[in-house]
Fold these 3 entries.
Entry 1:
Amino acid sequence: MNDFLLRINGSEMRVRAPGDESLLSVLRNRLHLTGTKYGCGEGQCAACTVLIDGQPQRSCLTQVSSVAHARITTIEGLESSGALSPVQQAFLEEEAFQCGYCTPGMVLAATALLREHPHPSEPEIVKGMDGNVCRCGTYPRIVAAVKRAAELQSKGDASHAG
Amino acid sequence: MPVNEIRERVHWFELDRRDFLKLCGGGLLVVLGGGTGLSQEAGHGFREHELPKEVSAWVHIDEDGRVTIFTGKVEIGQNIRTSLAQLVAEELRVPFDSITAVMGDTDLTPWDMGTFGSRSTPTMGPQLRTMASTARQMLVETAAQRWKADPATLVAADGRVTNPKSRQSLTYGEITHGEKLTQTVSGDPPLTPAIDWKIAGKPHFKVDGRDFVTGKHQYPSDIVRQEMMFGKMLRPSGFNATLASLDTSAVEKLPGVKVVRDGEFVGVAADDAFIAEQALAAIQAKWDVPAQISNKELFDYLRNNPERENGRPQPSSESESVSQAMASADVKLDQQYTVQYIAHAPLEPRAAVAEWNGDNLTVWTGTQRPFAVRDELAETFRISPTKVRVIMPDMGSAYGGKHTGECAVEAARLAKAAGKPVKLVWTREEEFTWAYLRPAGWIEIRSGVRRDGTLVAWEHHNYNSGPSAIDTPYSVAAKLTEFHPTKSPLRQGSYRGLAATANHFARESHMDELAHALNMDPLEFRMKNLNDPRLCAVFQAAAEKFGWGKTKPAAGHGFGIAGGVEKGGYVATCAEVEVNSAKKVRLRRVVQAWESGAIVNPNGLRNQTMGAAVQAIGGALFEAIEFRDGRILNPHFAQYRVPRFSDMPEVEIVLIDRKDLPSAGAGETGIVGLAPAVGNAIFAATGMRLREMPMAAGGEVKS
């Protein structure tokens, strides 16, 4: 067991855990940040996606010791002052989910994708999101939501600029 | 439908075996198996479970006018939390947002058989509408008494009763003061016809949608209790294994770990999830696994192992008339079709948190049948069902795969031994291996047609996969359809649409083959033999949107069409595929038309219908469980391929709203049209007729 000071969603959180425990397990079982989901434990479904220094990572394959000095963003950290992020807003408006279990991972993967490609083409969306599984089959709506998020984001940027 | 219920119990604790007969004799045993599927079809209870007639059991209005509805149905992504609230808001005349639904809590909601069979909309819908309508009448009558007015002159709208003459007005909360609605329903109170709906019938967003995009929603696997421990189960190294040796000495020494052994039930509970995993890994166990069959022998096995001896029926009058009709046919066809076992693979695996308080047990768990799981727990621990509470937080889906209570039983057994609440979440590998599968099947179809395209003889036999939608919707004078239950080498059970997918794949592929044999257009051939106007309408709607018969496919592309009806839902699917020179299949475009009576929530229905078509791509093209000697060989997403973004065609959904017809369920039947439409399109593109699901297991089609 080691003590870690993790920087999660802008806050510092102290946690005692074995260094080789997965970040997913630490988030869910020690910090009760249960928005990050277990789907397979082997990096194949991406339900556990979090952002590590802005990059999408599978938290189930990430050892907690390896992110001790990183900025970690989970689904709980995307709202700012009670307002949904453009990606969250777009998923809601397109209702791009059914059971919603894959949604946190999808939202974070899409957030990272839009940082890389602010105006992604459909093939870029498919390529960027292909590691994320939605077993309910809402993929077409998720693609629509990512496109809508890109629009919301560029509108937001424009209004900030103005 | 007994075949689709789970007959094998996973856990028989030592205790139970000894006392099993005593239990049966005492009349406490609640039968979970055979024959349970038909119970609530007519909208009433089952055996001792009469549904309450008191409005208060279903609807409550508090002082502030907030409405709570209670139903034993559960929300698993099919969106009935939203659509049932729309129906109640409509009948009660209250704003949609004023309604909260309590669902699937065995202490709070009326008994329910379970959420399956597309029954929520056709049975729970009218049930709750009836209660809401009765409540509304009661509110109007109470206000009328208070005002000494004629109830017929009063208006109920927007959560208020108003007297238009005197301009008096009271909110529902002011009328009830939060008291129970003591009225009992008798007869059939009038329900608002769909044509007059203002809240139902309109698109609504999913209730609590915001909680799903912010991670706030708590699924069963997210539940946390004070002092909760984490469980892990030791699994046999194969099916039908016996425990040869067990050494837990290394684990007993670990601090904060409790080892639980009860017969062949072996598990651990630990203070933290990481140590629970390490403890499980430190257990030394040897299992004897008997030799068992593999995929290679599967279909021979199904044909040769009837569930009951003499399973093959004697020649009947039907089979004689089919033989005679066949003799008069110009074209005859005799083909066989197969479907493999597939897994539901809900993204949230089975999960349960169990907490004992003396003899009282509470379990939060993901299940489609909370009351059945309650009874399973009561039976296992030999306590009265009244001492068990099962709570089902809206879960990470199921698709028919979570009818059973294994995980709840395991968590409860561990918690009982540990003396603290225990959470158990199955791993993906456990979910693939120790849950249950969609049945595999062998299907034979023999048919005869006249040269003008008239179907004259039809014989359809299904071995093991199930009887759902086995009857053909096409008009044919001489027909014989038969389901042959067989033994199954793997544990099998319910699945979205049950055997309707397999039977539609066989029938609609066969119809396509007949059309080509007659040199007729596949749609024209179907229409010639169809008398069901609703099925004709979805075929026409899909064909029109797709442009069937209007455009020619590009080189290497092919168009296919298929459709059918099951559980009151009518579906037709058109597909365009591309097969390249390496025989790789790519689904390019899908148009699916759907009709299930009056639409309650077009937004939710569109989502369900599209999701069903997308999920169907897996079973059609690549999903298959591989097994050998009692082991699943591909129990991971790396090996068991499910549909992903890159598999997506362009998908268009056409909804037909029949406000003149009762609303049917829509969670399942949307899955049945895609596989045969794709198979027929592959034939059109390549001339290769594929009769095995999945059709392109390795990515390529093979003849």
Entry 2:
Amino acid sequence: MDHRTRRLKKKKKRIDRPVVFFDFSLLFIILFLLAFGLIMVYSTSAYMAGIKFGQVDYYFRKQLISTSLGVCGMLIASRIDYHYYWKFSGIMYVMAAMLCIAVAIPGIGKDINGSRRWLQFGPLGFQPSEIAKLVALIVVAGVVCNMPKSINRFSNVIRTMLIVFPLFGMVAYTNLSNAIIIMAITVCIIFVASKKYAQFFVTAGILGGLGIAFIFLESYRATRIDAWLHPETAEKGYQTLQGLYAIGSGGLFGKGLGQSVQKLGYVPEAQNDMIFSIICEELGLFGAICVISLFILMLWRFAVIANNARDLYGSLLVVGAMGHIAVQVVLNIAVVTNSIPNTGISLPFISYGGTSVLFLLAEMGIVLNVSRGIRIEEEYEST
Amino acid sequence: MKTYQRRKLMVVLFGCVIFLIFLLFRLGYLMVLGSGYYEKKAQTLHERERYIKAPRGKIYDRNGILLADNQTVCTVSVIHNQVEQPQRVAKMLAKELQLPFTEVKKRVNKVTAIEKIKANVSKATGDRILAYGLAGVKVDEDRKRFYPHGKLASKVLGFAGGENQGILGLEVQYEKQLKGKDGCILTLTDARGMELENAPKRRIAPIPGKNLYTTLDYTIQYYCQQAAEKICKEKKAKHVSILVMNPQNGEILAMVDVPEYNLNRPFSKHLSMKQLNERWRNGCIHDTYEPGSIFKIITSCAGLEAGVVTVSDRFFCPGFKVVEDRRIHCHKVKGHGALDFTGGLMNSCNPVFIEVGLRLGVEKYFRYFEQFGLYGKTGIDLPGEAKTIMHDKKNVGPVELATISFGQSFQITPIKLATSVSSLLNGGTMVTPHIGRYIVTESGKKIRKNYPAGKRIVSRRTSRIMRKLLRKVVAEGTGNKAEVEGYSVGGKTATSQTLPRSAHKYISSFLGFEPAKHPTVLALITIKEPKGIYYGGTIAAPVIRNIFENILPYLHNR
């Protein structure tokens, strides 16, 4: 067999067998972000953990365990056919709702930092609202996909919203930020599935107006607005101001990894929501651009997968995940840079948080599973 | 996916990217344009300053003898949670600091962050304590003002407080030059204020104060102080002030105001603030008094300069003079009889000077008063100088004029009197009395102090006649007890009664200068409220003689 025939044979083989694709680029981005996140969690938390617990790796170890579990979960999920979830979506919805109710009951839910968001099972604690996000994604994508009549009809949009609303309400009771993300996932999926534009922009305008009115009317939120507009003088502006100090002192290339001073207790709980400010302080504008670029790259991979998914359900799952990541990244960085008032949203893959990373990785597993069966049009066209 | 769904997917992606790019610009704004602002803010938040005291400038006399120095003292403290052997630490500290063991032990075992055991410990003791190398014992060095000569020139030098700030005298006057600039060590701290171990420290070195070289002469000051103390004790006087200056340029060689106080211990627990102020007062510049007969020098100069009297003019003293309805007595009740102007000055005859004053008249008299610089302050470089207290010109009638002409009914500071007389005797040009000569910076640069001088206030002729007359006062007149063999001393005595007159308290004083032809040294002594004999010629003149006998050879040899 000469060289030419061997190549032909190979081509033939490829056409015969079902296309086995796996988005390694996305996997690589995820793993890179996770590794980077672990390094940053260690960097930001080591000093204060040493003071509080006497162990510099206290947060790092916990995060390493949940990340490892999460990666296993992701790899398993990437092998489970995503259509499977739809069959259990009803049960999942009910269970998520029950957990969300449970956490709101005093005595069952656990208070940490003044918010009752945790459920404790022995040594393990987790946030049901993180599960709710994943469940909402599966349910909404399924509902929209299985609408007897097209989602183009506004009544069907309302119907979908009504299905999500109970979960949204229950999550909102304890964790408004995650409720907003559930809403964003839902709207994102419906928007992409629907043919219409106008109704979304009108609704968005109305909701936006209502939201602003709501914020300004309620005094608790008004103090947050004050902290946003005048971080240097407002009483509640401390965290925001410390974040700005961290970002500002970073400059172009930062102080160098591990060299942040703001993480030494100035930025409270620096490994959580404000971690991006410490990234800016240590790695500078250069580091910040790298992180944001990675997220853009990730969103682009999502778009590619959604575009080429085998069916609409797969596409919409990926669209939801894309909306999820995008909203979290945008809101987190906007808060850290004091572009919007403070909300408690973490930076996906990087911020400290066991439940968050666990379910985020499960979601990535689903996305990877969708990518497994995609048709790469270009390849077909070339052959 | 349908085509329109793909398009909408692109819309979503595009929207997200737009948002992220907006945030990137926001970051760029914060981290590039806002960087300086936030970094500075953050830095001030992170850094803790520990001050390093700048050493205060030293004060020297005219020959380079140190008058005010700095001393290193230590503060010994223990840091409770660093102490490993409390028993040993307590034992060692009790021994080295000579404190009772039980008390030290109590302090060492006290649960506080840092406990001060003793302040103002000498450096030698501090070093010895450090040499033990016991954990938790801290010795902080600090600089404290130290006056090597104790009470010498205390009223002139003044003293500096615990924060190294000048409080009185030259220490206040030259505060800006002496103070220097504190440095600091900047260390990074975490949010709890704990210093970071490996963080780089920024050190801003302190700038030491500049050294002040004065016109004072340690030897003369010391001698005058002893002389003043001696007479003060002998006559049980309240205060004795002695001023020694160079009438040619206004340099103060000595300024004594007994009782002086120890500059290293200016405060005392037993004294109230009022009493402390009394203790710190410098009689030479802060207090005014009626100058008495020494003021006849001024009246003489005015009369001679105006031409209303000559040295050979004849007068007659019956022991008093009637002015309007008042009979003003001479100190010699029987009267001096017939005498010329020279005799009037030699015998300090009041009626002669009343006559001269009346001849001058209020208008002319006050013009000379102004011309001789008797109003206001001398401008000496010491804080708190008192002004002359003089009658308002329009209220001066013949009686007031008569009393002014022999130095009563108004008040003047000793420094003002000495300065005015200096200006009249040095050839007739104004001088400004001063103590600061020059300032030397750390780099060795000399900054000379300049004082206004040279303004003519009386003619050379009058000045010369005045010197001759005053020489005669010492050679043949009331000042004969100030005569020093081999030198030509001139001078004038004075005895003035303090207010109220009914108390019968006196101030005896004497002003002497040498050599009569070209005076280079002028001394003024005032003895306040002496017991027993109070005549200036009897008790004040001999003190000046004693001082001159000792300092003239010293001054002429130099």
Entry 3:
Amino acid sequence: MTHTDSTGTPPAPPKTSSSLWAWLGLVPFFLFAIAFLLLPSLSIFINSFQAKNGSFTFKNILDLSEPFIRNAYWNSISISLVTAIGGGIFGFFLAYAVTLGGLPKFVRPFITTFSGVASNFAGVPLAFAFISTLGRAGMVTVLLRDTFNFNIYDAGFNLYSFWGLSLVYMYFQFPLMLLIMTPALDGLRREWREAAENLGANSFQYWRYIAMPILLPSLLGSMILLFGNSFGAYATAYALTSGGAINLVTNVIGAQISGDVLNNQGLGYALALGMVVIMSLSLIGYSWLQRQTERWIR
Amino acid sequence: MKRGSIWAWLWVVLGAIYFFLPLYATFDFSLRLKRGVLSFAAYENVFNDARFVESFTFSLQMALWTILVSLILIVPTAYWVHLRLPKVRPFVELITLMPFVIPAVVLTFGFIQVYSKSTTFFGIALPSILSLDFFTLPGLMQVRDFVSSRTPITLAFPIILIAGYTVLSFPYMYRAVDTGLRAMDVRTLTEAAESLGANTPSILWYVIFPNLRAALLSGAFLTIAIVVGEFTLASLLVWPAFGPYIQLIGANRAYEPAALSVISFGLTWATLGLLQLFTRGQQGQIAGAR
């Protein structure tokens, strides 16, 4: 029996008679996807364009410009940007340190394993961990107050504020960045650096003209993922601020589900639709950047 | 590389502080229930709370159901796509990535909109799936509904909750299975099995599943890590799961939530540690949206 040594998936041999039958194999998966992804999304989409009496309207979409809603989007987008950029930069440096920083061998698996755990440690427990650390009675707060007579809350810090929440989000953001960036950094070939050095480039020039242009798409792409990661987050902020000291889109939607806080069902759906649109745009940007990266790093 | 090394150490030390300080502080805080002494009293309170055991068992059951449904949906589909329909692969992959586009809150919103009302389907009145209660499971009947504090009630089988978790598990499960399938020669294995007279279900059960063991375990552990502490779906669909329980305790007590945070961190650590053990070197990346 001859078989071609193929590791990937060779194209299926043309079996026209059974091709319809082949499609049947996908029916359960697609039925599930229709019931639990397509229908819910479609219902949000349709309801966004419906008035109370069921007629078609753009009013819900236009109402998104209300100050309260605009503020929620503004907060969600800025916290996602801040933690994506902050977590992205910190995560990148950490990834650089463990891949190319010349550290002892045991550091890397240690940091990567911990990042895997930390990037999954989010939600309610994470909020409580930070309350125990930097809350008004938290360990660090008390330590600074008692030993250095320095009250961080008097100095303007507040865990239950925008920047406090950003600090909490960073806990799952930068480990995720590290996990995504280490393969990309591993993909930088040593020959490229040697070639640059042979041509007389110094370290800065190597990074500026060789490494950065290659890494930039995956750097930006990863930051987009981080953006989406915090844009859709609900539990952490909910637990930290007990429901809504910080006005985020996810929290408004959550409150809208529990009871019609906006006094307008349609507006709630438009709000949710807006989130999906922003997330889709960022995923499209991500996959475009991903294709740019794949030209260099395989 | 001396200079580089110092910078590298600086970043690693900063990272380690960020990792460990909150954990240490939480642990320290959780020991201070009794004034003046360090004790495990908060943990005793937690373990003695019947709701802890109930909600945790509930969430664990949800995780197992999710793994089951996810496996039944993903493995045959991914296998079939690999073998017969490679051209629909990008499309299937896109569907499994949808949780990154539709946040859990929005998904729940849609679920409630579609399934909370009794609907008519071509003139036949259908009850809402959210309130279906003829699927009751023996294990679930003891669960107390602490969320709305209605004492012992018969709970419906949480179809929608499991469906939602299954959707959330798709990216991880599909990725794990896809990587596993790429690592083996699906076509040759299938042809060999077919020439011995096996039909598709037996090929899946006797050939594909065993070969995917490591991949499936990794998908399963990630699913447990995600589902057991999940808050958004459980709380908005009003199920007495572990996530809402932690939140409820957090709103009412001081030290017990810290103990619960430590426990739940330990759990995440344990599941992902087991994952690494079983899939040594196979999964380059544990978490992440890709």
